[in-house]
Amino acid sequence: MNNIIWTLKAFAELNPFELYQILRLRSEVFVVEQNCIFLDADDLDAQSLHLQGRSDGELIAYVRILPPGLCYAEPSIGRVVTSPPSRGTGAGKALMKKAIEETTAIYPNKSIKIGAQLYLKKFYEGFGFEQCSDMYMEDGIEHIKMLRK
Questions:
Q1: 88-118 pLDDT tens trace
Q2: Does domain 5-109 have CATH number 3.40.640.10?
Q3: Which long-range contacts (CB under 8 A, 24 or more apart) does 2-7 make?
Q4: Nearest to 2 by CA among 103, 94, 92, 83
Q5: φ, ψ at 131 (rounded to 5°)
Q6: Which of 61, 106, 132, 135 has a CA positioned 20 to 30 A from the CA of residue 18?
Q7: Residues 6+ away with beta carbon under 8 Å from 87
């Protein structure tokens, strides 16, 4: 998928429209679609960078990049999400590729750690992540920690 326009912004740089779209997409997928009642606004957004992928002005892909020391000793990529209509188009792979590029540019020579839903293990392995924890439950969903060295 080549027509994605990427922007990376600090929380304070997000305008209200962007913030609304981000929170709406995250709620649509993580709360409604996954039928998981949890507080998505977890007080980590203000300290994170926000990578948005847009096509024709619509938010279709998003991650937040967390600095080292916020969740893990390593920098982290979290809240990885693509809009339901954009699935199967390569947007998710483009999102992870761009997120890794940005994280590596900001935090050179650092490993990247993620908390991944277990069913996405092979997807993340395709980007060089390796499982580094036992399976654990988070908000009723099986997760694992993964590290990309």
A1: 999 999 999 999 999 999 999 999 999 999 9
A2: no
A3: 3/55, 3/56, 4/53, 4/54, 4/55, 4/60, 4/61, 4/91, 4/94, 5/53, 5/54, 5/55, 6/51, 6/52, 6/53, 6/98, 7/51, 7/52, 7/54
A4: 94
A5: -60, 135
A6: 106
A7: none
